[in-house]
């Protein structure tokens, strides 16, 4: 069970900061570093969920919330859900392997 309320609170704070223009003219890597630092603290100390925190900010600024790297515009596509291509492939592969293992247990 994770702290959904805390995660959404931080997401709303990021959205307010963004709407007020504080991210304007700041390079993506610095925005990513700020989000990473806050999200890791929230995850480690308050059991928050990175997807719920980064849901709206991640696609807008091209930040992968798995490796916290910056995702280039040509790497982003309509299917972008917050993971860079490499993390998406790794997680998809792990998910498929887990599914196969679970299926074989039955
Ligand atoms: Zn990544």
Walk me through what this model shows.
- This protein has 106 residues and is mostly helical.
- The chain has one domain.
- 62% of the residues lie in helices and 0% in strands.
- The chain has five helices and no strands.
- It has helices at residues 4-19, 28-46, 50-54, 57-61, 85-105.
- The model has no long low-confidence stretch (mean pLDDT 89).
- Bound molecules: zinc ion (ZN).
- Zinc ion binds next to helix 5.
Secondary-structure map:
Layout: H1 4-19, H2 28-46, H3 50-54, H4 57-61, H5 85-105
Helix pairs in contact: 1-2
The structure holds zinc ion.
Please describe the structure with a list of short key phrases separated by commas or semicolons.
binds zinc ion; single chain; globular; 106 residues
Brief characterization of the structure:
The chain has 106 residues and is mostly helical. The chain has one domain (4-105). It has helices at 4-19, 28-46, 50-54, 57-61, 85-105.
Fraction of residues in H or I helices = 55-70%
> The biggest beta sheet, please?
none
What's the helix-strand series? HHHHH
Termini gap: 26 Å
Query: Low-confidence stretches at least 5 residues in length (pLDDT < 50)?
Result: none
What's the average pLDDT? 89
Shape: globular
Oligomer: single chain
- Derived structural class: mainly alpha
Number of strands: 0
* DSSP strand content: under 5%
Query: Helix count?
Result: 5
Hetero ligands: zinc ion
**Number of structurally distinct domains:** 1
Rg, Cα atoms, Å: 15 Å
């Amino acid at each position: 069970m994770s702290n959904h309320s805390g995660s959404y609170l931080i997401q709303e704070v990021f959205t307010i900061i963004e709407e007020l223009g504080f991210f304007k003219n700041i390079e993506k890597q610095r925005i990513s570093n700020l989000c990473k630092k806050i999200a890791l603290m929230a995850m480690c100390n308050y059991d928050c969920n990175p997807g719920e925190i980064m849901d709206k900010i991640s696609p807008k600024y091209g930040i992968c919330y798995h490796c916290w790297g910056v995702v280039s515009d040509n790497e982003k596509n309509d299917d972008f859900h917050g993971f860079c291509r490499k993390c998406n492939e790794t997680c998809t592969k792990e998910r498929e392997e887990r599914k196969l293992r679970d299926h074989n247990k039955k």
